[in-house]
Write a structure and sequence with these properties.
Elements lengths: L1 E3 L9 E8 L10 E7 L8 E3 L6 H4 L1 E3 L6 E4 L2 E8 L7 E7 L3 E3 L1
Antiparallel strand pairs: 1-4, 2-3, 2-7, 5-6, 6-9, 7-8
Length: 104
């Protein structure tokens, strides 16, 4: 994701990545923080590309409500929210996990 300093002064930005499981078997928060990074010092008008790696742990939860007692990432639709906070989102992506994963 490209971050551009649109202000008048040099500065840094903390970019947060939140995941939402659209249809989870268990009730989960609407936005779960799964990663963050900070830009370098950006001069006015300058841009920087930021990246955060998300894996199956980022999509999963520990299922202790059934007999599984394992980490589970359920197949289905997910949303990724990107912004400086959970309330100030400047990008939203949707993606699909095509199969369910479970691990200890």
């Amino acid at each position: 994701m490209a971050i551009t300093n649109i202000g008048q002064f040099a500065g840094r930005e903390t970019v947060q990545f939140y995941v939402h499981d659209v249809k989870s078997s268990l009730q989960r928060p609407p936005k779960e923080l799964k990663g963050f990074t900070k830009t370098g010092l950006l001069q006015p008008g300058a841009s920087e590309t930021v990246k955060v790696a998300l894996d199956r742990l980022s999509l999963g939860y520990f299922d202790d409500h059934t007999d599984r007692n394992k980490w589970v990432a359920e197949k289905g639709a997910f949303k990724l929210y990107i912004g400086p906070s959970s309330e100030e989102v400047f990008a939203e992506l949707e993606f699909e996990l095509t199969e369910t994963y479970s691990w200890i």
